[in-house]
Fold this sequence. Notes:
Layout: E1 11-14, H1 17-25, E2 31-36, H2 46-58, E3 61-64, H3 78-91, E4 96-99, E5 102-104, E6 108-113, H4 119-136, E7 141-143, H5 158-169, E8 172-176, H6 177-187, H7 191-197, E9 203-209, E10 212-215, E11 218-220, H8 229-242, E12 247-250, H9 258-289
Parallel strand pairs: 1-2, 1-12, 2-3, 3-4, 4-7, 7-8, 8-9, 9-12
Antiparallel strand pairs: 5-6, 10-11
Helix pairs in contact: 4-5, 7-8, 8-9
Amino acid sequence: MTVASCPVNGAGLGLRRVLMDPLAERVPDSIGFFEVAPENWIGIGGAMGRRFREFTERYPFVLHGLSLSIGGPSPLDETFLRKLARFMDEHGIECYTEHLSYCSDDGHLYDLLPIPFTEAAVHYVADRIRRVQDILGRRIGMENASFYTYAPGSEMSEIDFILAVIDEADCDLLLDVNNVYVNSVNHGYDPLAFLDRIPGERICYLHIAGHYREAEDLIVDTHGADVIDPVWQLLEETYRRFGVLPTLLERDFNIPPLETLLIEIDRIREIQARCDTTRDRQEASSHHARGG
Length: 292
C-alpha cells in the first residue's frame, strides 16, 4: 500500500470562469490552491486557454473529473484519459480525482448514480481504477459520493464498499465531508462512526460544500449554498482524527462574489490553525509525559 500524497496545502477554491476576472487582479494569500474539472479545459485554446495557463503557471492546481463514470457499464473512455494525461503534463498538475459512482451508459446521464454495493462491483470498479492509473501514470483519488437510495442488489454498506474498492485498487480517497453529513442524514448513520472507519493514510484532500435540505430526513447535495454549522463541526472532527488536510470549498452555482467565498475560505483556515495548535499541544504533552 502506498500512502496518499497531494502537492497542495491549506484551503482551496474551485476556479469558475466567473471568478477569473476578480482573481486575475489578485489571488488572496488565503487561497492555497485551485481545483477545476479537466473536461471544462481540455482543448480550450485562444484567449481563455492563455488565461488558464497563466493561473496554472502561478498557482497549485488539482483536477476533479466529471465524466469518468468509473462504475458505469460502458468501456472506459481511454481516448479521453490519454488527453487527460497530456493535459496534466502540460500544466504540471499531479492530482486527479473522480466520483465513486457512474454517469453514463451509451451516452452521458447528467447525474451521478450510485454503484450497487456488491463484491462483484468492487472487483469491476477496482479493475477500472487500476487501468486509469496505468494510463495516467499516476495514482488517482476516488470521492465518496452522495446518493439518495441504495442501488438494487446492494450487499454491503457504503463504507464497506468504499474501503474494499480503495484497498483492491490501491488508490487514494478524496474525502467529501459534506457528503458524509448528507448521507448520514439521508440514510440514518452516525457520521463520526463513518469517519472512524476511514484509513487516514489514504486521504489525498478534502471537499466541503453547502447543500439543500428538502425535509428533515432528506438533504440534496447541491454545492449551491453556504456551508452549515454541522458540516463545519464535522470538518473539525475530521482534522482531529487525521490531521489538518488540504480542504477545497466547492461552489458550483448560486456563486456569490469572491469576497463572500473568502469568508468561508477564512473559516477553513481558522479551523486548520486551531487544530494544528491543538495537535502541537497534544504532541508536546505526550513528549513531556514520556520524559522527553
